[in-house]
Amino acid sequence: TTPDPINLGDATLAGILSAHDIELSFSGLTISGGVVTAGTVTISATSAEMNFGLVTSTIGAITGTYDIAAKTFSLTLNSVSVNFSSFVNISADSMSLTYNSTSDTTVTLTDGTNTTTKDVSVLTLGINNASVFIGINGPADNSGAVGVKLTGANLALALMSADDGSIYYGVQATAASLSDVGLPDGSGFDVCKAIR
Hints:
This protein is mostly beta strands. It is flat. It is about 0% helix and about 70% strand. The termini are far apart. It has strands at about 5-15, 15-30, 35-45, 45-50, 55-60, 60-65, 70-85, 90-110, 115-135, 145-160, 165-175, 175-180. It has a six-stranded antiparallel barrel with strand order 2-3-6-7-5-4.
């Protein structure tokens, strides 16, 4: 039988990280010889905060899953905000992290001339619809804020590792706009696209 969800309530780690309404749930568990061999463990929380002094963060709903048989993990953080004092402010609709520790994902690799396939373990990071302000007196909508603001930013990063020790990566980033905030007229800037 599948155990009932376990409500862990709120938790704080060393006064730095606080998570709220944490719940563990289980589905499709298979037990063989007293060992859980298959099934899914899900952890969720309604929100979390982190405080390292000058670096603070708030996070909305959190969901993580672990597939026991496949040895894969995924984590999604919604409504993420990270502040480095008032100098750097980052917010995103969501951030996701996945990890497949087994080398059973086949990828096609190319250096532009040669193409090959390889089995790899994969770690991915995704950031959806982020806004970044870099400057003083932030965030960008504060009175007196001066700096630059990037909006509509998305990031997809994949890190792959093969059994032979080779490491590969793929990255894609886009943004809707880059603009100045509170800078005097005529002090604009140019952005060059150096790498595609």
